[in-house]
Known about the structure:
- By secondary structure, the protein is mostly beta strands.
- 11% of the residues lie in helices and 41% in strands.
- The protein folds into 2 domains: 32 residues; 248 residues, Methylamine Dehydrogenase, Chain H (7 Propeller).
- The chain is built from 1 helix and 24 strands.
- The protein is globular, with a radius of gyration of 22 Å.
Amino acid sequence: MRRLNGFVRDLGAAALVIVLILGAGAIRTAGANQQDAAAVALAYDRGTDALLKSDGRTLYQSADGGRSWKAIRIPASENGQIASIAPSPAAKGVTYVVGKGLGVLRTEDGGKSWIERNDGLPSRDVVAVAAHTTEPETVYVVVSDHGVYRSQDAGRNWRLMDRGSQGGIRQLIHSDMTGSMQTGWLFAATAKGVRRTMDCFCLWQDAGKLGTEARSVAYDPSHPDHFYAVTDKGLFRSKDGGENWSQMVWPNANAITVTFAPSNILYVIDGNGALFRSTDDGNTWTRVDA
Length: 290
């Protein structure tokens, strides 16, 4: 009986060692693949020629077109979830990151240090951000249950611009498309499709008749009236400022977010966190991180 008890103890100890080894391997694998989690935001930074993405917990940067990624530390991210990323097209090194419970964060050095820009906002529940295309210190944010705010001094002061349009906005971008009574246009991906307004906030209107939920919207800076939208029915393209949309080729139905980079490159992340690239305006796609 003593021999049997000793055998059982030895067997239990061996099993424990195996479990610990396998568990450690699983933890290492999870850490290695953390950046492959489904993304909630994707953006291209013209100033640094880099891609930025987030899975809601961590901000990542890629300097090689999405083939590899490094995490960028955001000290306040433990207090909230990242919802939106907006590199400034007009100010090199400047990026805004926002989220519910996070508020507004701004970096001026490519992510090495961050400054909170929440003074004057009614809460830290910020769900979307857009940097002005040509004005380096102008930025727009959507505060949940409060409205759209604008700052013209890099977030030091905020002014409520529109109280009623924030419902259902998932993403906000600024375009210097012609025809505005002020300096450009704001386009929003919303639960009811893509909406737009001149940046004087004169009137929000539907951009065309997508008739379905829009998850993300992007545009081509070299052709400011060319827009791309991710919807629950796939990818769509507009070449007339959102008046008309045509469905694009896409390898699966689960696109989440889209961004545009120079040389006519489109990037899309799907619901599994896989990154795809098109160099021919969305006619063919290649998985980047395969």
